[in-house]
């Protein structure tokens, strides 16, 4: 399966059907009068949020969606039938943005949501509509109103309980693979992860969703490295797990770089509940661990966990702490996904840079089917 988190598509609602110009012709009725029926309404463009999708890859192969034209009116005052709606199915967490990417038209956070994006054109009136006491035989019949058309961007923001953040090569994918059944690509070089990965962690008989996001570097909010392309996925996470590579010389500076990027991106990312872990502790001596823990605590002002995804150090304690914070968030905000940047579903869109269809960054993605 390919993972695609944004796509540009063309929408057009159906045209209305034309009204009929007709007169009643019946034996022994000399002045039957007009009996042309009205045209039918064009089909709407409807977007439906469904639970069994987790990528926008289908829109890479189909970009045009059009509602059907309404049926024309007929004699004997027959009104034309309405055109069929076109229903577009999107995953939970999808936003619809204008072509200029400056406004959110719709924000789907719950499976089963449906919204009419473009309404079909009304049908034209038949000549029977224009009959009056002074105009007994009108010949006017109107064409249907044209449908509306619009280019929009679809942007998928992953919905997860916990988002893994950190600099490239901080061990996020290794941690995800250690605590879930997901099998993300793991390597000893930066930017091994080029797309988000999801996994389901089970602890204490309960489950929560983890999202492994590509690493951030200084200037990411302005497009450096992989840019701010994936920062939007963090907006809907209940808690952030900030992994810091313990083998780095200055762990405090590594922590500050990521925190600054979250703050400058906006959308309230820097205000989310965050747990911090010093990763790769299996490669450090006890003296180095103590020294770097102290530096990281001073920089963050919070408790810091010691962790090693590959050696399994500190995983259980950290998972229980994550579960506690996630349950508190669910009690406070309910089971509905969090949406930091688009709480009302309509408003300004977050900073992001679209990628053309020709980009070949896509790889197979492993989704945990728990």
What does this structure look like?
The chain is of the alpha/beta class. It has two domains: 1-156, GTP1/OBG domain (Spo0b-associated Gtp-binding Protein, Chain: A); 162-333, Rossmann fold. The protein has four helices and 14 strands. The chain has helices at residues 172-179, 251-265, 286-300, 315-333, and strands at residues 6-12, 45-50, 64-66, 86-91, 94-98, 104-107, 114-118, 149-156, 162-165, 197-203, 206-212, 239-245, 273-279, 304-306. Helix 3 (286-300) links the parallel strand 13 (273-279) and strand 14. Helix 2 runs parallel beside helix 3 (286-300). It starts with 5 loop residues before the first strand and ends in a 37-residue tail after the last helix. The model is unreliable at 185-193, 220-227 and 339-370 (pLDDT under 50).
Question: What's the pLDDT, averaged over the residues?
Answer: 81
Q: What is the count of distinct domains?
A: 2
CATH class of the largest domain: Alpha Beta
Contiguous uncertain segments of 5+ residues: 185-193, 220-227, 339-370
Q: What are the main properties of this structure?
A:
single chain; 370 residues; Rossmann fold; six-stranded mixed beta sheet; 4 helices; 14 strands; 21% strand; rod-shaped
Quick recap:
With 370 residues, this protein is an alpha/beta fold. 15% of the residues lie in helices and 21% in strands.
């Amino acid at each position: 399966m390919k993972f695609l988190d944004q796509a540009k598509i063309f929408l057009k609602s159906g045209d209305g059907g034309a009204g009929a110009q007709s007169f009643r012709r019946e034996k022994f009725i000399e002045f039957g009068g007009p009996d042309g029926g009205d045209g039918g309404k064009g089909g709407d463009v409807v977007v439906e949020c469904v639970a069994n999708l987790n990528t926008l890859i289908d829109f890479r192969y189909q970009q045009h969606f059009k509602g059907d034209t309404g049926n024309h009116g007929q004699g004997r005052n027959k009104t034309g039938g309405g055109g069929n709606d076109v229903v577009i199915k999107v995953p939970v967490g999808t936003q619809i943005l204008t072509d200029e990417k400056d406004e959110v038209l719709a924000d789907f956070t719950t499976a089963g949501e449906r919204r009419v994006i473009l309404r079909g054109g009304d049908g034209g009136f038949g000549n029977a509509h224009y009959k009056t006491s002074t105009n007994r035989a009108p010949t006017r019949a109107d064409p249907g109103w044209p449908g509306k058309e619009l280019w929009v961007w679809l942007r998928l923001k992953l919905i997860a309980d916990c988002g893994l953040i950190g600099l490239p090569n901080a061990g996020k994918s290794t941690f995800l693979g250690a605590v879930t059944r997901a099998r993300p690509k793991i390597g000893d070089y930066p930017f091994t992860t080029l797309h988000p990965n999801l996994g389901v962690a089970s602890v204490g008989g309960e489950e929560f969703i983890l999202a492994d996001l590509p690493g951030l570097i200084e200037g990411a909010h302005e497009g450096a490295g992989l840019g701010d392309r994936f920062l939007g996925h963090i907006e809907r996470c209940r808690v952030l797990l900030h992994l810091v590579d313990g083998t780095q010389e200055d762990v405090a500076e590594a922590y500050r770089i990521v925190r600054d990027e979250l703050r400058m991106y906006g959308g309230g990312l820097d205000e989310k509940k965050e747990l911090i872990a010093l990763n790769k502790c299996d490669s450090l001596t006890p003296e180095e661990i103590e020294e770097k823990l102290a530096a990281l605590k001073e920089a963050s002002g919070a408790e810091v966990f010691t962790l090693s995804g590959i050696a399994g150090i500190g995983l259980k304690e950290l998972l229980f702490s994550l579960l506690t914070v996630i349950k508190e968030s669910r009690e406070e905000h309910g089971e509905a996904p969090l949406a930091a940047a688009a709480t009302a579903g309509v408003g300004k869109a977050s900073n992001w840079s679209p990628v053309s269809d020709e980009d070949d960054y896509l790889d197979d993605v492993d989704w945990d089917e728990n």
